[in-house]
Structures are given as structure tokens and as C-alpha cells.
Write a structure and sequence with these properties.
2 domains, alpha/beta, Transferase, Pyrimidine Nucleoside Phosphorylase, Chain A, domain 3, seven-stranded mixed sheet
């Protein structure tokens, strides 16, 4: 299948969702050689991935994920009587392999959103980067990330926030990661992975690296059955809402996608320079996050407030960004966001440390060690 699909893409043809599902499946299952997989991903990048191709890739990726059931009482966001505080799992996700050298905006945003009443379940991978890796920053904040999958579920359901950095992709996940690293460029996996949240979140705030991708990814989310979504790209390739210039936003609501452009001054926020958002190593970024959660004014607080507001809108907790901004500011100024971080540190440390046994990917288990 991969060879036929490769020929079709090289000839400039688009793949159906079903054919893309099979091609990506072969890559994930190790049935495609490195040469075939690399050529296929490169050809797709040069042609430009379609909505159907990305959708098929996400479905293949999701099929191979260990599912993380969270809160059996969850309901679809379209329900008028939804209780957002207890029944919504909201995905705030980004992919910063080649980041913009900002501090960890989305990690800070997740804590504010959780303190504001929306559940946030995030899954990531550990990176070697001392600057951008959310795992290293969270550990410098005191969070224990070496917890079991069960503990992660309990953490989300208890605190409405959780971070999991263990293996969830069955099959040849390590091989795929090496392939992406060897290619050294963005591929369709940069679009697929953030959409394959193991908690199957019905609401999404998704950052993308190119403005023309926002509408495309919003339509992909519609194909995947998402309720509400905001797909954003800020000036300077920020994969979040920017305070440095205009941000393109494609909003999915009631099955329809509407695209617009917003600017920080639209909300009474001063336009900042990208340098104002610069982070550092993991220890420095952890310090910056605590400063923001303590209420320190400035562009770093502003960018977190704007992105938290988008999450509140996606979760139907607020009708518009103006209302969401007010909620985000109140959450920070009241100390609730900092309290959420401290509660996360206490909970995860009480879980003890879990070490993954070297077993096949489909037989992953954890062995407890002393707290």
C-alpha cells in the first residue's frame, strides 16, 4: 500500500481518507521501510496535505493509542445543560519541536484553565531540549511525571488537570520518532500527533505553525467529530494566540468553520515584542511560570490570559474572548492558578515513582517504587 500511495502522491494526486489510513498504519506498524516512509512524508509535505489525508492519518494514529478513559459522565459539548466543571475534557496542545523560544505558554495556560473550571488532560513526550521541553519545566516546578496511567487518570478527575509523559502509542513509536528526527523537517505527523489526544477530548484549542493550516485543521476536527474548537496561528509562527501581532483563528462551532483575525489591541492589550516572551532553560522557565501565576503583570501574563480565554470559549464556559479574558484574570489574581499548581505538585509526589518495565509496547506495565 505504501508504495502505491507514494507513487500517487509523487504524481500530485491526493489520497482518500481510507488510503491514507492504511499508509500511515504501515509506517506506525513498521511495515514500511525508512526509505519508503521518509519519501512518503516528504512527498506529502511538498504536495500539501489535504483534510482527508490528515483525517485518515489521525484515525490511524488514534487506533494505535492506549486509550485513557476520563470521567465516565462526560457528555458532548453540544448539550445545553452541560456541566463544564465536571464533564468536559479540554485539549490544549502544541508541537514545539522547532519552537519560537518563548517560555512554556501552553503549560501555564493549562494550569489557568484548570483553575477556571475546565478539565485539561495533556499527553506529551520528553525531549532533549533544555529550553522547550514541558516535561523538564514541570519537573523543575516540582511535579512528579513518573506516575502510572491510573494515577494520571485520578489526577485529572481529582484536580481537573494532568500531564502524562509515558508511552501511549503502541507499535513502533520509537522508530517513528527517530524518523521524524532524521528528516529534520515538519511532516504530516506534526499535524496528526496533536489531534490524537488519548482522552478523545470533544473541545480543542490547537496551535499550528502556518496560518493557512488553521482552517484546514478545523475541518479535520469537524470530520473527527469534535464539538467546539479554536485553531490558531499567531504572528511570528507562535502556535498560540499572539500578543506580538495579529492571530488567525478558525473556529469550529455547530459543524461550521469561521475564520477571522484578531489583534491584542482589540482587547485592550498592548502589542508586545517577541523578545518580551522569551524563555530560557527549564529552571528559568519554571520561575517565569510561577511569576505569571503569582500575578506579575506584563506580556507573559497577557499571552496566557488570551490563550486561557480561548480555552474557556471552546469549552462553552464563556461566550466570547472578552468574557474569557475576565475569567482568566480573576483566576490568576485570586491565586487559584498558583494553588492549582501547588495541588498538582502535592498530588503527583504522593503517587510515588513508577518505573516502566521493558515489555512489548502492547504489554506496558508499571512497577511502583517508594514515594
Amino acid at each position: 500500500m505504501i508504495r502505491q500511495s507514494l507513487k500517487q502522491v509523487i504524481a500530485g494526486g491526493d489520497l482518500s481518507e481510507g488510503r491514507m489510513f492504511k499508509a500511515v498504519g504501515e509506517i506506525l506498524d513498521g511495515k514500511a521501510t525508512n526509505a519508503q516512509a521518509g519519501a512518503f512524508l516528504t512527498a506529502l509535505r511538498l504536495k500539501g496535505e489535504t483534510v482527508e489525508e490528515i483525517t485518515g492519518g489521525v484515525r490511524a494514529y488514534r487506533e494505535r493509542l492506549v486509550q485513557v478513559p476520563l470521567n465516565s459522565r462526560r457528555v458532548n459539548l453540544d448539550r445545553d445543560e452541560i456541566n463544564v466543571e465536571e464533564e468536559t475534557i479540554l485539549q490544549t496542545c502544541d508541537d514545539k519541536a522547532n519552537g519560537t523560544r518563548t517560555f512554556n505558554v501552553s503549560t501555564t495556560t493549562a494550569l489557568v484553565v484548570a483553575a477556571g473550571g475546565v478539565c485539561v488532560a495533556r499527553h506529551g513526550i520528553r525531549t532533549a531540549s533544555p529550553c522547550f521541553g514541558a516535561a523538564q519545566v514541570l519537573e523543575n516546578l516540582g511535579v512528579n511525571l513518573d506516575i502510572s496511567l491510573t494515577a494520571f487518570q485520578q489526577c485529572v478527575e481529582t484536580l481537573r488537570v494532568g500531564f502524562f509523559f509515558g508511552p501511549l502509542l503502541k507499535g513502533h513509536a520509537a522508530r517513528v520518532a527517530r524518523l521524524r528526527s532524521e528528516l529534520g523537517m515538519r511532516t504530516v505527523f506534526n499535524l496528526i500527533a496533536p489531534l490524537a489526544n488519548p482522552s478523545d477530548a470533544p473541545a480543542h484549542v490547537l496551535g499550528v505553525y502556518e496560518p493557512h493550516q488553521t482552517e484546514k485543521l478545523a475541518h479535520v476536527l469537524a470530520h473527527l467529530g469534535a464539538g467546539n474548537a479554536l485553531v490558531v496561528c499567531g504572528e511570528g509562527t507562535l502556535d498560540e494566540i499572539s500578543v506580538c501581532g495579529p492571530t488567525r483563528i478558525s473556529e469550529l462551532k455547530a459543524g461550521q468553520v469561521h475564520t477571522s483575525t484578531i489583534r491584542p489591541e482589540d482587547f485592550g492589550i498592548l502589542t508586545a515584542h517577541q523578545e518580551d516572551l522569551r524563555g530560557g532553560n527549564a529552571r528559568q522557565n519554571a520561575r517565569i511560570i510561577r511569576e505569571v501565576l503569582k500575578g506579575a503583570p506584563g506580556p507573559r501574563r497577557d499571552v496566557v490570559v488570551l490563550n486561557a480565554a480561548a480555552a474557556f470559549v471552546a469549552a462553552d464556559l464563556d461566550p466570547d474572548l472578552e468574557s474569557g479574558i475576565g475569567r482568566a484574570r480573576d483566576v490568576i489574581d485570586s491565586g487559584k492558578a498558583l494553588e492549582k499548581l501547588d495541588a498538582l505538585v502535592r498530588f503527583t509526589r504522593a503517587c510515588g515513582t513508577f518505573v516502566r518495565k521493558e515489555l512489548p509496547w502492547d504489554e506496558v506495565s508499571y512497577a511502583a517504587t517508594a514515594p
